Amino acid sequence: MLIRGERSLRAIEGWIGTGLVVLVAGYAGTAGATAITGAGSSFGAPIYGAWGEDAAKDVGITLNYQTIGSGAGQNQARARTVDFGASDAPMSATALHDARLAQFPTVMGAIVPVINLPGVGDNQLHLTGALLAQVYDGEITSWNDARIAAVNPGLALPDIPVAPVRRADGSGTTFVFTTYLSQSWPQWQAQEGAGTSIQWPVGEGARGNDGIAAAVRNTQGSIGYLEYAYAAGNHMVMAQMRNRHGEDVVAGHASFEAAARSAKWADDATRRVDVLDAAGAGAWPIMAATYVLIPTDPTDPAQGRAVRDFFAWAFDRGDETARKLQYVPLPPEVKVGIESFLKQ
After folding, report:
1. Which runs of E-coded beta strand occur in 139-260?
2. Residue 41: alpha-carbon gap to chain centroid
3. What angle do CA 130, 120, 171 make, to 5 degrees?
4. What is the dihedral of CA 322, 264, 103, 188, to 10 degrees?
5. Best label site of 65, 174, 275, 298, fewest CB within 10 Å?
6. In 3D, which of 220, 240, 249, 1 has the Cα closest to residue 124?
């Protein structure tokens, strides 16, 4: 993983541990010190933290970001208790209109399966979407199950129970993960479906990416799902995934970029992107964008202006940092429209 030095790695680990990010940022046109607040996605927390750290050199805006999950981020944006919400589950055009919110993506990133299996190292285990669904549905209960062994010839799989770990809070990461499971296995679609919070058939619940990471680290035989920056920053053991072309791919910049190149962008108020199980050769299959929600009628126009300035700065100067944290920046043609909106 390409992390911008020890400073950034320590910052990521700190954000994971506390769930609270305090950033200092600035952008031309914002006079004096202004404090803004944001809350929501844990998927997006590392990049918002890193952008804030870099933007501090420009002086101007202090951002307090709370990592509370996408569902809560949407609710706080609706209630105007924060200056912006962050969510990995995009809101519909109707919901945005009714809540008087504008939505735009900031970066694309990957979700990865992480494991704790004795004798199995990083990227040694191979999984498919159907196998993940059967593990989280309770159909597969042992790691040496013949279905797992069939896609892992030659790998010594331990004869121990599978211990799935999943999010207990409303989570955009869960929305992306369960949408992928629904696409991968019809039984999951019929019985569990997709959402920020679902009725899980089996597994231990944990709050936030930090909770998932801790539970997997402390439980032999466990499997969980994490945003890639958290998994890499915590030195978690990851599994390879088989994509729609039958390729077993390793999570990393090359497979993320391959997925992003074939993303499908909506041309409406949602500004959403479909990059899940993308068609590109070599593509990592569990990819998504993370989104920001800002009021179209902010209670305090100066606060609204400061939020727009922060993200305008990030789109202008934050791509290198995003890549170093293994996110994928938005394509230039997509950013143009968002930047025009932010400058209004």
Report:
1. 163-167, 204-206, 222-227, 237-238, 240-242, 248-249
2. 7
3. 50
4. -100
5. 298
6. 240
81-95 average pLDDT score: 95
**Phi, psi values for residue 29, rounded to 5°:** 105, -15
Asked if residue 94 has pLDDT above 90, the reply is yes
What is the C-alpha R_g of the chain?
Answer: 20
d(CA 58, CA 65): 19
Please give the structure tokens belonging to residue 265. 């962008």
Contact call for residues 246 and 120 (beta carbons, < 8 A): no
- Provide the 10 A C-beta neighbour count for residue 150: 11
The one-letter amino acid at 2: L
Would the CA dihedral through 187, 190, 194, 197 be positive or negative?
Answer: negative
Residue 281's nearest CA partner among 254, 308, 302, 305 is 254
pLDDT digits (tens, 9 = 90+) for 166-202: 999 888 899 999 999 999 999 999 999 999 999 999 9
Question: What is the structure's pLDDT at 16?
Answer: 38
The model's pTM:
0.85
Kind and range of the H or E run holding 40: strand 34-40
pLDDT of residue 156: 96
Which amino acid, one-letter code, is at 47?
I
Structure token digits, residue 244: 């729609």
The two structure tokens encoding residue 201: 């058939």
